Amino acid sequence: MPWVDDEILELARAAVRPFAPYPGLGVDIIRERSTGKLFVLEVDSRGFDITDVPRRGAPIEERAPYHTQFDGLAGIAKRLIDKTRELAV
């Protein structure tokens, strides 16, 4: 995988744990440059991803390929299907 940061992934997993029933959450995480400390800015369930917003400099996709990373879109689709089937009783 071209982009993997285990520390960020661990923090993201911890941040979404309270929201377990909701599939496809987005977690905005930043790293303080001077200390390397990570911060969660928000957990987003609206379906809008800030990476869709044009940015200055290199596109975010070059740093974190969210469409293909960890089978991203297919994984979200599968989770949504599973959750829909679970709730459609």
Describe what you observe in this structure.
- The protein has 89 residues and is α+β, with helices and mostly antiparallel strands.
- It has one domain (6-87).
- The chain is 35% helix and 15% strand.
- It has helices at 6-16, 60-63, 72-87; strands at 26-31, 38-44.
- It has a two-stranded antiparallel ribbon.
- The termini are far apart.
- The model is unreliable at 52-56 (pLDDT under 50).
Short description:
The chain is an alpha+beta fold.
What is the structural class?
alpha+beta
Low-confidence stretches: 52-56
Q: What number of domains?
A: 1
Output the strand order for the largest sheet: 1-2
Order of helices and strands: HEEHH
What form results from the Cα inertia axes? elongated
**Strand percent estimate:** 5-15%
Kindly, what is the distance between the CA atoms of the first and last residues, rounded to a whole number of angstroms? 38 Å
Task: Write down the overall mean pLDDT.
Answer: 75
Outline the biggest β-sheet.
2 strands, antiparallel
Number of helices: 3
Number of strands: 2
The helical percent reads 25-40%
* Integer-rounded radius of gyration: 14 Å
SSE topology sketch:
Blueprint (H helix, E strand, L loop, with lengths): L5 H11 L9 E6 L6 E7 L15 H4 L8 H16 L2
Antiparallel strand pairs: 1-2
Please name the defining characteristics of this protein.
89 residues, two-stranded antiparallel sheet, single chain, alpha+beta, 2 strands, 15% strand
